[in-house]
Write a structure and sequence with these properties.
The chain is of the alpha/beta class and 392 residues long. It has 2 domains: 196 residues, Roll (Diaminopimelate Epimerase, Chain A, domain 1), CATH 3.10.310.50; 110 residues, no CATH class. Helix content is 51%, strand content 7%. The chain has a 5-stranded mixed β-sheet. A hairpin with a 4-residue loop joins β3 and β4. The termini are far apart.
Length: 392
């Protein structure tokens, strides 16, 4: 009789959890950038994810929430996400496997905030999120204001990464298996590089012990390696600029050389793909327009080349970031050494953004309901600050 009661109790608990998951709304679209179909699709994925188990077979009580906002109102994206996470108490106090995805449209920033329980796992961490979740495809979609597609892609990628540390429901197991293969290949390649490096290091020690003379100091070697890297990719980046992007139709309007653009791109260490070069070039042209507007507002008489060099430094510093307007750029760099003496303070008359982008997203077909989280949270989940941020 006791066994029957225990079995019935377990069935009730499991059924109760399943019902709660089926009714939960994990998507809070305050920015109105998702349509009804996207909200439904995201909720279906996250409700299914909530049935995940730990490697030991327990219910993981994993909760994954999504929140879109129009603006952070000057707050840091990490502080904002952590405050939201802890106020909602995403996840439970036992396993603490909560996840929050926050995106701010006007700030062009997003973040995945993690419950502290993920610190005990192997794969869900800042490095892997940036590598496997925040892909180039996500950046392209955000830059074209395909916010729904970007959020769905990030969610699928994150579920796949989570699936390396927990047991996903059968319907989502394929996500984890596919990423697992890519991670295994990446780890094997990394191990091979380390082995080669150790072999090279041992050989170097033997040469030095045998009386060999080092031809390069550490600094000289770094300069040599940097020059070699730049030369290796310069031709490829220049060909992309010329053949793929039609850049040469515009180059008469620029004082800076094509080689300087290619070298600046290569110094970011971004892979020299068409998408990355396109992103870098577009952001450079955008920032150049903002610098010119700032000069006009301050009545500064700088030469075009000086303006372009400043825009290039800004773009090189954060290649995936496109600043909303001049004030946004000025506020971000006003304390940086290279920016000091260029502009000071905040403009009395704000400089408007160029009339080419960043209009508010059209919400004519956006989700008009389901803007309140329901059916989850309050279980004691807590985040000390772990996670990963991104921008576009």
């Amino acid at each position: 009789m006791k066994k029957i009661l225990v079995l019935l109790t377990m069935l009730v608990m499991i059924f109760g959890v399943t019902v709660a998951h089926a009714e939960a709304n994990y998507v809070k679209d305050d920015a109105k950038v998702l349509n009804q179909s996207q909200v439904q699709n995201l909720n279906e994925m996250l409700r299914e994810l909530a049935n995940s188990q730990t490697k030991s077979g327990e219910m993981a009580h994993l909760e994954y929430a999504i929140m879109t906002v129009k603006s952070l109102n000057g707050d840091d994206v990490e502080d904002y996400a952590r405050d939201v996470f802890n106020k909602k108490q995403i996840g439970d106090s036992q396993h603490n496997l909560g996840v929050l995805f926050l995106i701010s449209i006007k700030d062009h920033e997003y973040r995945i905030q993690l419950g502290d329980g993920w610190e005990k796992t192997k794969y869900v961490n800042e490095s892997n999120i940036k590598k496997w979740v925040y892909t180039d495809n996500v950046t392209r979609m955000l830059r074209t204001e395909n916010y729904g597609g970007a959020i769905e892609t990030i969610t699928e990628n994150m579920i796949a990464l989570v699936g390396q540390d927990v047991v996903l429901p059968q319907s989502q197991a394929a996500f984890a298996k596919s990423l697992g293969v890519r991670i295994a290949k990446s780890e094997a390649a990394h191990a091979k590089r380390l082995a080669n490096l150790k072999t090279f290091g041992l050989g170097t020690v033997i040469v030095l012990l045998g009386g060999g003379i080092s031809f390069f100091s550490v600094n000289s070697w770094r300069k040599f390696a940097k020059k070699r890297y730049l030369n290796k990719n310069r031709a490829l980046v220049l060909s992309i600029l010329e053949l793929e992007l039609g850049f040469y139709a515009e180059k008469e309007r620029l004082s800076i050389s094509d080689e300087s653009l290619a070298d600046a791109f290569n110094e970011t260490k971004l892979p020299p793909t068409i998408g990355n070069v396109q992103m870098f070039l577009d952001n450079f042209k955008w920032h150049n327009a903002l610098v010119k507007q700032g000069d006009a507002q301050y009545k500064e008489d700088r030469q075009p080349r000086e303006q372009e060099e400043m825009a290039l430094r800004i773009t090189k510093k954060k290649p995936s970031r496109r600043y909303h307007d001049f004030n946004d750029m000025n506020d971000n760099f006003r304390h940086d050494r290279f920016w000091r003496g260029y502009y000071y303070g905040t403009l009395l008359y704000p400089v408007a953004a160029p009339q080419t982008a960043f209009a508010d997203h059209d919400s004519s077909d956006s989700n008009s309901g389901n803007d309140t989280w329901t059916g989850f949270g309050g279980g004691g989940g807590f985040s000390s600050g772990g996670g990963a941020s991104g921008s576009w």
